[in-house]
Design a protein that fits this description.
The complex is a heterodimer of chains A (121) and B (355).
Chain A: H1 3-26, E1 32-37, E2 40-46, E3 51-55, E4 62-67, E5 70-76, H2 82-85, E6 95-98, E7 103-108, E8 118-120
Antiparallel strand pairs in A: 1-2, 1-7, 3-4, 4-5, 6-7
Chain B: H1 2-26, E1 29-37, E2 40-48, H2 53-72, H3 80-91, E3 93-95, H4 100-113, H5 127-133, H6 145-152, E4 163-165, E5 170-173, H7 186-199, E6 204-211, E7 214-219, E8 227-232, E9 241-247, E10 251-257, E11 262-264, E12 271-273, E13 288-295, H8 298-322, E14 326-331, E15 335-338, E16 343-346, E17 352-354
Parallel strand pairs in B: 15-17
Antiparallel strand pairs in B: 1-2, 2-6, 3-5, 4-5, 6-7, 7-10, 8-9, 9-16, 10-13, 11-12, 13-14, 14-15
Helix pairs in contact in B: 2-7, 4-8, 7-8
The chains are: A alpha+beta (121), B alpha+beta (355).
Amino acid sequence: MKKKDVILISVVLVIALISFGILKFMQKDGKEVIVTMNGKMVYTTDLREDQVYKIPVKDGENVMEISDGKVRMKKADCPDQICKHHRAIEKSGETIVCLPHKVVIEISSDTKEQELDGITR
Amino acid sequence: MKRNWKRAFSIAVCIGMFFMMYGCQRKTESYSHTDFAMGTAANITLYGTSSSLDKIEQKIIKKVKSIEKEQISWRVKDSQLAKMNAQLLQNGSSSVKEPLKGWLLDALQISQDSNADGRNTVDPSIGKLTQLWDFESENPEVPSNEKIKKIVQGDLSENSYHVMIQDNGELKVCDANTQFDLGAFGKGIGIDEIKKLLEKEEDVSGAMAALGGSILVYGEKPDGEAWNVGVQDPSGQDGEVLGNIKIKGDTFISTSGDYEKFFIDKKTGKKYFHILDSKTGYPVKTDITSCTIVCDSGINSDGLSTACFALGVEKSQKLLKKYNAKAIFVDKKKNVYVSDGLDFTLQKEGYNIVK
């Protein structure tokens, strides 16, 4: 192999690596917060954006709050109040469920770095 | 000329490598969704090469809903179980077809195996008692002592011994009070059926299915690591974990605790939880606050978690051995008892592992 061949191979390799890096970079690395009602998605947002969101529940109230990269159910008028007392979630795959209002808040992420596959309770 | 060929070949190899790297990363897809079925949240995560994992998930949810509505719910009038209960009230006999027949036989077997001192917490034939308490209604109340006594006064604690299911499905009961309730087994039955569905899907390489707190881990994770399941801290907020279990695929995990379904009596301030003692008719007295079962069957893990919660550490050992199941018990003094061979890591402070 000539010196020029080595250079050519190196150049192509570098280009390949750079494009690979760009592709990786273009994938969202931020975690996404997904809100579903009765299994259907109603809202998605970025976990890094602090906000208060009123979930459009028909006969009741559920208010989600995101602050400092954590999500919690700030207000809920469901009978059991389990969602309101759920700990604030921040990791991929974690969920807060309001069973009476059939609302789920879920943190998803493209990079699969989920710690727990599920929680038995 | 020859050199040009070499160059072209090198470039082709490089491009090929690039696509291989990219291709490897995309090969296994994943899909996760939370829906509602069996009166609880149903969370399914699927891994596989299929591009229609979402459709498979919908099929699974549909199946779980149909098991509830068509087979095992005593609340849904047209379900097999509700029809059976109605016939029993009318003429003291009925008949039962598969698949309900198989589930009932399994549940009765677990009930008889876990009967201790005439107490039973998983008897599927004491539906009258669970219906009287009705923990899932909007405003549950403590029933009158008279009403409870009236149901318990027969030999209800051993009722499951007096239920006969013949091969042809003919069902006979001795006690006129007999009504069936598969509440202690329903989610376990659900995850058993999910596993059967997954086995037919060749493109699904791994899955996690949770019906409420009853979990199936199936096949392999894309990274080949062990499945990692958290155990709820019985005295923590919902979602706070006590520790985590690392397990291989095709395993079922269920937990029963006094924190799951309960209400506080407005007059006395006393807490009543949903696991009832067939002998007294009231919530069972136990030192345990949470019991997690790990085994190779959903119906067994679900039923045994309730039974062992009531029996306590010592009395559960024989039962666990018979069903080849492993357990994690947490008692009221925050002691944690873990079966040998279970890869459990305690994360929460304030608890003490007893060897």
